[in-house]
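Holo prediction — guanosine-5'-triphosphate.
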Amino acid sequence: MVKGIEMKVRMIIIGGFLGAGKTTLITKLAKELKGSGVNVGIIMNDQADSLVDTQYAEALGLSSSEVAGGCFCCQFPVFLNKAEELIDTSKPQMLIAEPVGSCTDLLATVVAPLQVLYSDMFEVAPLTIMVDAIRVLEEGFDRHSVSGYLRAHQLEEAELVVLSKADLVSLEDMQRAVETVRKINPEAKLVIHSSVNGQGFADVVKAATSDVVSTRRPKDIDYDLYAQAEAELGWYNGTMALDFGQGTDSYDLGKKILEGFSARYPKGNIAHAKIMLSSESNALKMSSVRGMVSVDAANGSRISEGKGKLTVNARVVSNPELLRDNIRTMLKEVLGIDVLSLESEDSFAPLPPKPFHRMVD
Ligand SMILES: Nc1nc2c(ncn2[C@@H]2O[C@H](COP(=O)(O)OP(=O)(O)OP(=O)(O)O)[C@@H](O)[C@H]2O)c(=O)[nH]1
Ligand SMILES: [Mg+2]
């Protein structure tokens, strides 16, 4: 599909809980679309700044922007502004937006406002929600599971569900995961996906490039329960300058940092911890979701040399101050004396969501 710049920009919103695989899918989708001649922009989102995801998208050479310090719904004017900026600078035919993983009620607070107030600018694709098959199998959507109310609502409002991490579960288990998803949302289109073997990716590309638009009505929501579910998580973002000297094995370092979370927290409580390490000789992105550590991307050699930088983003079920203290201790243990300075650090629990718009009729 090739659209002229005078046409509406197709806005594809890909939400879903922390660690479900949004950034992995979005960057892959953007590269695929770019490769087939579609001009694409990406908008990332987080409750804080210094984002690993944005650094990653930029490192891949994708036109990207971020809305930091709150979700798209609470910061709708900033979201719109960033979209307009990207449209002015990059003239994209499509914008792919990743809302923060602890955000829901997007139909009422982002999709509807775009459709009602900015219908001349945007064509809004059906709301896509990514759901981690492992989290479904191990926790379900029980109110008492990690952010259960919030994750169930995200799924309820989905128009396209991308059930991710198919490579990590057996066919029988995937069938069970599908049944659990269907109990909450029987209507959505469902794609079983793996970023590792490419399963389901063609269906995601097809949905992205179709002309079908979002039509789903917003779902009821209790904002107190939503706020409680969101506030279960402590958030930590930190950036520090490092001196790797003659050379440090970056994989070892990343692994040790992320394994520090597994040593301190029950795995279900590690929603997503991610790090980006960069130096004069390399760059590395690693993640831990529920204690499962993986290398997401690497550039250059395995060995970090000279001056460098470490960014840590962690979202863990914890009091935020305790999370910060634990991370400081972990970093001190792993990095020894080489921390030159902590350039920025932030730890907090998200405030109750207060959407700028909420349109339900
Ligand atoms: N095995 C496997 N790993 C995956 C798959 N999709 C994503 N991952 C891994 O899961 C981790 C989290 O992926 P992200 O794409 O960063 O998740 P996210 O939803 O953007 O997370 P937040 O930005 O924290 O909300 C990374 O280590 C990915 O490599 C998949 O299909 N299979
Ligand atoms: Mg992400």
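READOUT: Confidence is low (pLDDT under 50) at residues 1-5.
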